[in-house]
Amino acid sequence: MTTLSRIQKLVAIAVGGAGGVAVYLYTAKRDNASVYNSWTTNTVVPDEAKWDFNWDHRDPKSIVKPPSKHATEDEINSYNEKLEAVKPKAVRHLILIRHGQYNLEGLTDDQRYLTETGRTQANLTGQRLKVLDVKWDKMIRSTMTRAQETGKIISTELAMNLPIENCSLIEEGAPIPPQPAVGHWAPEPAQFFQDGARIEAGFRKYFHRANVKQEKDSYTLIVCHANVIRYFVCRAMQFPAEAWLRLSLNHASITWLSILPSGRVILRSLGDSGHMPPKYITSR
Ligand SMILES: *[C@@H]1O[C@H](CO)[C@@H](O)[C@H](O)[C@H]1NC(C)=O
Ligand SMILES: *[C@@H]1O[C@H](CO)[C@@H](O)[C@H](O)[C@H]1NC(C)=O
């Protein structure tokens, strides 16, 4: 039984008998039902902590013109029908895979091919995705060699007729200056200027709620790179994008995000490599 607080005890004594028990039960129940911020003294939610439902500019309310203040009942009904007609129905699952370990000595992209370990990692992730028994609808691969190779091993392992697309928007790069900054990694401002716009374009291309015509949930594999995936996760979760470098992803790990018809987004796994024997788990 929960212990009574000093005040509850005083109240119980004051009221006495059955009345006291009733007061105790009432206050105990109320405490269980309320959740307080333990680290703040008020309940004001800062604006930047609030979820923006129109983050992808596909919120039905942002697409359909609202009725005027003096709208007739017919006009309001027609507005509601139009709203219903553009409401998405399906969930879009985006499964982001980091490429496997690669030859760090390579100077050009084509010399930065997967190592033996990298190929095994891709193979193990392919096997993992296969046993999940999901009907993958397509695979999108970054055009860089290590992502192409990783994607190829995975699609071979999946052994299904998987449509494949190449995409250079999701090549590796410098998405946005990180907070806090780190000394050992400091690209030129121009690099962020250039890569940031490209990687953000990749985000807008792939991250949005389902089109209203999409009937069934979709499962799309995107094989790309650690900086790109970390930036996408922060953007999709509406965390500050500058936080991306605080996350770490293992080679060939699985990051799973689901975009619901309502515009909510769920991060189901981040950098999962639990399907690999420990000797194959690497991140650099
Ligand atoms: C993955 O590894 C298994 C076991 O070594 C092998 O039989 C299979 O051919 C590999 N798959 C690919 C796509 O390399
Ligand atoms: C993707 O690019 C690779 C490497 O250039 C090429 O071999 C492959 O055919 C391309 N795939 C598609 C679907 O365009």
From TrEMBL:
<dbReference type="Pfam" id="PF00300">
    <property type="entry name" value="His_Phos_1"/>
</dbReference>
<keyword id="KW-0812">Transmembrane</keyword>
<keyword id="KW-1133">Transmembrane helix</keyword>
<comment type="subunit">
    <text>Interacts with Pk92B/ASK1.</text>
</comment>
<keyword id="KW-0496">Mitochondrion</keyword>
<comment type="function">
    <text>Displays phosphatase activity for serine/threonine residues, and dephosphorylates and activates Pk92B kinase. Has apparently no phosphoglycerate mutase activity.</text>
</comment>
<dbReference type="GO" id="GO:0090141">
    <property type="term" value="P:positive regulation of mitochondrial fission"/>
</dbReference>
<feature type="transmembrane region" description="Helical">
    <location>
        <begin position="7"/>
        <end position="26"/>
    </location>
</feature>
<comment type="similarity">
    <text>Belongs to the phosphoglycerate mutase family. BPG-dependent PGAM subfamily.</text>
</comment>
<protein>
    <recommendedName>
        <fullName>Serine/threonine-protein phosphatase PGAM5, mitochondrial</fullName>
        <ecNumber>3.1.3.16</ecNumber>
    </recommendedName>
</protein>
<dbReference type="GO" id="GO:0004722">
    <property type="term" value="F:protein serine/threonine phosphatase activity"/>
</dbReference>
<dbReference type="InterPro" id="IPR051021">
    <property type="entry name" value="Mito_Ser/Thr_phosphatase"/>
</dbReference>
<feature type="binding site">
    <location>
        <position position="146"/>
    </location>
    <ligand>
        <name>substrate</name>
    </ligand>
</feature>
<keyword id="KW-0378">Hydrolase</keyword>
<dbReference type="GO" id="GO:0005741">
    <property type="term" value="C:mitochondrial outer membrane"/>
</dbReference>
<keyword id="KW-1000">Mitochondrion outer membrane</keyword>
<feature type="binding site">
    <location>
        <begin position="98"/>
        <end position="103"/>
    </location>
    <ligand>
        <name>substrate</name>
    </ligand>
</feature>
<dbReference type="InterPro" id="IPR029033">
    <property type="entry name" value="His_PPase_superfam"/>
</dbReference>
<dbReference type="InterPro" id="IPR013078">
    <property type="entry name" value="His_Pase_superF_clade-1"/>
</dbReference>
<keyword id="KW-0472">Membrane</keyword>
